Structure formats: structure tokens, C-alpha cells
Amino acid sequence: ILKLQFLYFIGFQKKKEKKKKNTLVTKSMSRMSKMCVGLLLAAGYSAGQQACNGMDCQAVEQPLQLGIQKCTKAGGCQKDGETYITMDANWRWLQHEDTYTNCWDQYKMWVNPDCSSAADQQKCAQNCMLEGVDYGKYGVTSDGTSMTMKFKGPDGNIGSRLYMLEQKAEAKARGASKADPSSWEYKTFNLLNKEFSFTVEAPKLSCGINGPIYFVEMNKDGDMDGTYNSAGPLYGTGYCDAQCPGDMHFVKGRANIPIQNAQGGGADSAWHACCNEIDLWEANNVSTAVTPHPCEANGTDVTGTYACPNGADKCRETCDHAGCDFASYRLQYYSGGMNGAKVNFYGNGLKVDASKPVTVVTQFVTDDGTDTGKLKEMRRVYVQDGKVIQNMNATVAGNTHDSITDGFCKDQANTFDDKVQHFAAKGGMAKMGDSFTRGMVLVFSLWDDKEAHMLWLDGKYPQNASDSTPGAVRGTCGPNEGPPMQPEQNYADVTTSYGNLKYGEIGSTFP
After folding, report:
1. 258-265, long-range: CB < 8 A, 24+ apart
2. Is 166 a catalytic residue?
3. Per the residue annotation, which of 61, 185, 277, 488 is the catalytic one?
4. Model pLDDT for residues 334-375, shown as the tens digit of each residue
5. Global confidence as pTM
6. Which of 18, 68, 112, 244 is the most buried (most CB within 10 A)?
7. 277 is known as an active-site residue
């Protein structure tokens, strides 16, 4: 699945160009002063933070509050501390600490002289600082219990990617300022023998757009080590996933030079950040999928250069790039004898009605029914209009499945894919469970797909496949529907909302 989020560069650069104009007159502007943190290398700077002085900073970093509840069968659901969401570092303006001009440009890539070659990784990281963001300009709002993400923000920014974080317990105990980046960490989850639920509303999320919520095994400190990275979770650093993204401006604090441009495909990137990933919900109003992606390494692996997405086999050297997806349309189309008329489970007006709010529950069942057992199954339940809807059945390789297990993944690979057991080779369900024991970070995103036009989710993929090719038809969308083939500005009213976030014992988060 191509989740490298290429399209955000368009909106990000529009904002940066406006910022660049502003910085030319910064000293005469009545802007608020605030910390602006650089990804610092140890070269005469103190670890932890660097301040923009006076009028140098363009935006105050104030992560948005978004609550989550922890549930038990006996005690019900209670608020689980104070949790927030923050914007990924790649969406932020990256300014030079001396000139207050762009370090990064969509088309010219690294444009500051301090970032001109791979030999400049240290100097570039030392001198380029991350700004705070105005979340409203990205179309991201929260009332504390639910969050809404707009596909096109008021300033023209396209899409976003956000992480859940919280202040460290010790930092709160000593009364640390929320402006101190070292006081923050990503909230991590271990969901073995537990379930996670949320309510999603996205009636206008159509062909070519995806509004996922998922977990990745990025480090809870955002790779903030006081040597390479002094920005950390507050500024959205440290991202990785099973697609081994090469579009990250910084990986482990190092400036990623040379880096692909938005249309470059990935082979030219210096660093790729790979880690275990579980997609709870990849969806629009045509199709949805839940997909685990195991990787060989634990945590973030940046030990090699992986050609993603053009070289899927390279990705699979480290991660199961495609994953083992339980995709509603794809499976029902195949199980129904390659007949789209028999697809009736998920979509607008169907059994799970994508035009209405729906609560999505994912259960992580262990082999011995304990919190320390091995993950053996991922189950899906829906709740809509007060009714509990069990997951659909799918017949693959002569076996009926309604959940993700090693057996389902084996049958699907033998039927749909290249008959190579990539999922099993990377450790299968047990490896995904092991990732939870180390802690996984919650990610929210809204994006479109320049490379494959999201057809792997909602259309026919690969495009040259026959409709009778098992697993090729994943939805009704054509290759020219939706962005990026249609102008992105036409989708300004497209939003997705997440709320009622809960996790806890299996059977405790929904009626």
C-alpha cells in the first residue's frame, strides 16, 4: 500500500511560500513569540531545545487536546489522562535559524546552502528549525473528544498526518512547561487481549481519498536524544511505517539528503524509515480495509536504502509492504463469484452505511486469552444506529474467514497475490503482537495518492488486470476519479471526523 503521502507537499509548500514572504518583514510584524525548535546536532548547542527570539517565530506550537477513554467490563470507561494530537514534522515550516528562510522547497527540495549535499546532514540539521503550526489553517480542529480533519485547509494545505501524545508523568509531576519539548512523549498502546474502538464520520470521503487511523512502532520519544534530535514528539518527529517512507525530511535527526521530490518515487532518498504497522481503518465511502504489516526489525529500521514504492521487492526485504488486508469490497467481490452486484456489506446505503457515523471496533485476540499471550487473531465489529454488526464472511481458498489470522493470510496470499508468503516470512500475527509489547503510536491521516490513485483501496489494482483476476477488484472507482486526477481544490468540503476513542478489555468499549 502506497502510504508515502506525496500530496501533502503541495499544500505544505503553499503555506511555506506564504511564510517565506512573511519572514522578509518579520521584525516589523506583531507576531507572537514562542519556542521554535531545531533538530540539533551536538555542535556547540545545548541539548533539548533552541528558542526563536523576539519576532523570529511564525507560529505558537499548541497541540490540540483529544481525549481517549480506558475501559473495563466491571468499571466502564474512564478518561485516560490528558492526551493531545500533534502535526507530523514534514507538514511544518522548516526555517533557517539565521536567515529565517525556507530550508526545504517542494520542487528544489533542500534549498538552503547548508543542505546542499549528503555531506551536510549534520550542518543542515543543526541550522534548520521546525516551526509550530496553526492547526486551523490545515483544517484540523478538536473539541477535546472528537477531531475533524479537512482534506483541503483554508490556506490551501492538502491533507495532514497527526499523532497522539501526552506529557511525561515525571514532567507533569515537576510542573514542566508544555512549551518544553523534552516534557512530551507519544502515547503508546499495548492492545494484546484488548480492543480499540472509535466513531468515524466521513460521508464525503469519495474515490481517491483515504482517511486512515493506524498504529506504527515509532519510538515514543520521536527519536529525541539530545544529540541528533531536540524537537521530539511535540513537533511530530520520528515517523516510520511498513512502506519504508523515503520522503521524511529528517530520519533519526539526520537531514535526509538527497531526498525525493513529491513526484520522484523514492529511489533517490538517502534514508528510509521502516517499522511495524497495523492499519485499523483505511477507508472512504467505497471500501475499507484492516491490514497488519509486520517487519523484520523492532522499532525504526534505517539501516539501508529501500526503493519504495517503485521497488516493492526491496520493501519486502524489511517489511511486508502490501500486508494482509481484510478488505470488504475485495473479499466480497471475489467470494461472490466476481460479481459486483453481490457486494452489499460496506458502502453508502449498505449494511455498514458509509454515509452515516459508525463505531469501528478492532479486537486483538491472544492464543491463551491473557495480556501476555501471543496475538493469534484480529477481529472486527461495527456498531451503527444502535445495532452491533458482525464482520462479513469471505470464502478464500475454500475456507471461510471473518477475521485476520495466519490461516487467512496464507489463503489470501495463495489466491490473490504472488503465492509468496510475505506476511508469514516477516513473523505473521505473532510479530505484530510483539510490536504491541514494545508500544505502538496512534496515527491519524487524510491523504490522496499520486502514485496509484488509491486504486489499491477502492478500484482495480493493478490497472491492467482483468476483472476476473482474483483480488484485483477492490472497489468501483476508476483511474480518473477523484484526486489527484481531478483538481484537489474541488474537494474542499471533504472531511473525516474521529471521536469516542476507547480501548480496554475485549467487550468493554461498545454495547
Report:
1. 258/109, 258/110, 258/118, 259/109, 259/110, 261/9, 261/106, 261/107, 261/109, 262/6, 262/7, 262/9, 262/10, 262/106, 262/450, 263/6, 263/450, 265/309, 265/310, 265/451
2. no
3. 277
4. 998 888 888 999 999 999 999 999 999 999 999 999 999 999
5. 0.88
6. 244
7. yes
